[in-house]
Amino acid sequence: MLSRQTGWGRDHWEALADHLLDSLVPYFSPGASLIHLPGRPSRSGTASDALEGFARSFMLAAFRIAGVQGKGCEQLIERYARGVANGADPDHPDSWLRLTPRSQQMVEAAAIAVALHESREWIWERLDTRAQEHVAEWLGGFIGSTTHDNNWRLFQVVSEQFLASVGAPYSQEDIDGGLDRIEDWYVGDGWYSDGDGQNYDNYIGWAMHLYPGLWARMAAATPGAQYEDRLKLYKERINLFLADAVHLVGNDGAPIYQGRSLTYRMAAAAPYWMGAILDSTPLTPGQTRRLCSGIARHFVQHGVPDERGLLTLGWYDTFLPTTQQYSGPGSPYWASKGFIGLLLPPEHPVWTDPEGSVPLDDADQVRAMPAPGWIVHGSRHDQVVQLVNHGSDHLPTAEPDGVEPAGDPHYNRLAYANHAGPELSDHAPQLDNLISLVGAGGMQSSRGRIRRIGISGRTASSWHQAWLGAVGPWRIEIASVVHAGWEIRCALVEGPSGALVRSGGFAVAGESLPEATVRGLAAAARNTDGLTSAVVGLHGYDQAGVHRGLHTNAFGAHSVTPYLTARHSGEPLVLVNAVVLTRSSARPEALAEGIDLQVAGTTVSISLPGVGVEVVELGRGALD
After folding, report:
1. How far is the C-alpha of 480 from the C-alpha of 258, rounded, in Å?
2. pLDDT at 624 over 50
3. Helices (H), 73-199
4. How high does pLDDT run on average in the chain?
5. pLDDT at position 621, please?
């Protein structure tokens, strides 16, 4: 059997692509250049949203068309060719918004440029001369313009490279400037930051690695273009990146829920496919298909797309807190990037080889990733992958004058996972995967800028400032040690006398209220799928409890977060607890019995079964 693990082959991918594309037909404008989808508008307005729906689905259509050399795609070709011609025509009633500096249209223009390149033989070349001129004029709005200084630089790069490839006006300075700029963000081991700062998330795979590969494909079709040296570098880097990225997906296909734009869902598969397209990946063809098909199948099994065949704003179901203000009804169709593997022909080994096993199939995994500041650990039998975060905060690089801005819950948590997500509410306490000070009236500190101390093996550490309103800052240092699915959190907490220190575990969610238990210094919550989140106090904590949420979690309407508390004396306080996300039915305090520790001042010695002793020295890290 070719697909022993997922049961998916190329025919499943084509069928899913066709279903998504066919389901959009009722929402096309008369000129076929805009798609007016139902849902909350973005901050850019409905005209931009309608362009977004067209542009992003056009990428999917292009991959589908090119992958079969246009055979059987005649209606699809006609539909999108007509849409391109009418959208680029400034005199047509359904014409696209013009490109202006830093406008959302730039994002969508890049999608159109990519789609036109990949479907060149079937769409671009069938446009008449005037339509091609209109497209070139519209994309020409990039020339000499300004984008946001992050992955958006690559939108200008690929759009102008497409212009170059068809003999239209373009700026080589813009192309070189964008490609040079991403060099400033390369941090090693295959990792980029998405702009200045500590911006590590899915954009590294589905933007910072994807677009350079797409650019190289365009440059190869441009007479006289110099691209070989850059392509060699990009191939080396994506190979390194994928050696880490293979650990970011469970062996059931569930990707880790962390970062922004998570409503793009299957786009998480894009870097694995791109590694195969560039023939530069540590994965075998069978492993690549296994990972990518697992991701797509996971979302399908969880109701994606919906009963209308549409991709909605959310993770599984519609859930707006997963999204950002820039997200509109067409935004989820960046899932199209996850279908780029369809460009590989049916006879390619990625489609014909048997599925291969991934590392988590064979053994539990612990992977230190110093570049983003993460440790990723996974449980083979639970299909649970956890990301311990001591490096990604997605905050401006400039130090604030006074109180630090509160962190984004998609970035500031101590840990993330593939079957659990952070609580997302402006009206409820933020407990999950945070260690916070809680003052009078329930005011709590946040985790803003993450100051790294170190990461090696199974240990990572950092510190952050804690503010109670305008009072502070105090220093909270946290070291994480991972073992056998557990994360042991050692904290050195400064704070005012009488304040409460609160440490939360993972929030687990479901359509019915998870079962909660509190026993001594242990608290746990278990949902109907058998997923348990637990915290166990090992040193310094006084009480355990649980917090219940309603409509605050992407994984279900009801959620429960276990937590621990300790009263602060005003002197630096050493606290140690264990956090686990597991499908084991054993009591959490029983699971933690094998963890033995000794605390001497600010030194914590942790005896781990089968590993030995890990020593954590708190209070000795960098202070700025």
Report:
1. 18
2. no
3. 74-88, 104-118, 129-139, 152-165, 172-183
4. 96
5. 64
pLDDT > 80? residue 458: yes
Looking at residue 610, its pLDDT comes to 84
DSSP at 464 = E
Instruction: Read off the pLDDT band of 623 (50, 70, 90).
Output: very low
Asked if residue 131 has pLDDT above 60, the reply is yes
Q: In one letter, which amino acid is 151?
A: N
Length of the chain: 624
- How far CA 290 is from CA of 28, 196, 283, 293, 321, in Å, comes to 34, 34, 10, 5, 30
Query: How far is it, in rounded angstroms, from Cα 352 to Cα 117?
Result: 26
At residue 324, the pLDDT reads 97
Q: What percent of the chain has pLDDT over 90?
A: 93
Distance from C-alpha of 543 to C-alpha of 566, rounded to nearest angstrom: 7
CA distance linking residue 72 with residue 28, whole number of Å: 21
Q: Are 507 and 531 in contact (CB under 8 A)?
A: no
Distances (CA, A) of 270 to 128, 238, 355, 556: 32, 12, 18, 26
pLDDT of 487 strictly over 90: yes
Q: Which two tokens stand for residue 572?
A: 């630096």
- Do residues 445 and 469 lie in contact, with contact meaning Cβ atoms separated by under 8 Å? no
Q: Residue 36 burial (CB < 10 Å; 0-12/13-18/19+)?
A: middle
Whole-number Å distance between alpha carbons of 156 and 102:
11
- CA pair distance 280, 51, nearest whole angstrom: 34
Indicate the residue type of 77: I
Radius of gyration of the chain (CA): 25
Question: Higher model confidence: residue 427 or residue 162?
Answer: 162
Amino acid at site 561: T
Residue 481 near residue 425 (C-beta atoms within 8 A): no
Where helices occur in 150-209 by DSSP H, the ranges are 152-165, 172-183, 203
Please tell me whether residue 402 adopts helix, strand or coil conformation.
coil
Q: Identify the helix (H) or strand (E) that includes residue 467.
A: strand 459-468
Write the pLDDT tens digit of every residue in 296-348: 999 999 999 999 999 999 999 999 999 999 999 999 999 999 999 999 999 99
CB atoms under 10 Å from CB of 219, counted, come to: 21
247: tokens are 């650990």
- Torsion, CA 398, CA 404, CA 406, CA 408, rounded to 10: 20
Other CB atoms closer than 10 Å to residue 38's CB: what's the count?
Answer: 9
Overall pTM > 0.85: yes
Within 10 angstroms of residue 515's Cβ, the number of other Cβ atoms is 14
Q: List the single range of 182-191, 294-303, 397-406, 503-512 with lowest mean pLDDT.
A: 397-406
Query: For residue 223, what are its two tokens?
Result: 């007479």
Count Cβ atoms below 10 Å from residue 588 Cβ, excluding itself: 26
Question: Could you tell me if 468 and 445 are in contact, meaning their C-beta atoms sit under 8 angstroms apart?
Answer: yes
Among 377, 122, 153, 341, CA closest to 244:
377
